[in-house]
Amino acid sequence: MSNGVVYIGSYDKNLYAVDAVTGTEKWRFKTGIFYGSSPAVSNGVVYIGCFDFYLFAIDAVLGTEKWRFRTGSYVRSSPAVSNGVVYVGSWDGNLYAIDAVKGVSSTPITTLTGVSTPGIQSTPTPLLPSNSEYFNVSQLYEIVIIILLTGILYKGWKAIKH
Which of 82, 87, 104, 117 is the most exposed place for a label (fewest CB within 10 A)? Predict the structure, then answer.
């Protein structure tokens, strides 16, 4: 929810924007297949992943597409946005860092498994500088921690057995 509007991805292939007070539909955005993630809203843009391999950027007021970014598989990961970058995982095993305005990505970070739901933490930890953010992705066979320090991505991983 953002600015009194709830954004809902549906199995009927629509992303809905609904007024949180009245329940009135403000707009809907249709794709060719159902949505696989919860939306994230930042700076007037709704970001949502889809089972057609795309991450969509939708204008939060107008409901129009700003851009779409194609991954190599399903996007079941809910996007996370920080400092003008949209982070999203795909079942192709990659974690993508996508420019929030242009919709382009640098080289993705490959994991051992499909990436489910990431999260960005800004909470200081004893191991990181106080102004850093870290991005944690937990998977069935892998834990990935990516630290965002001055725009550089660092990857550390540890295989775990279940």
Answer: 104
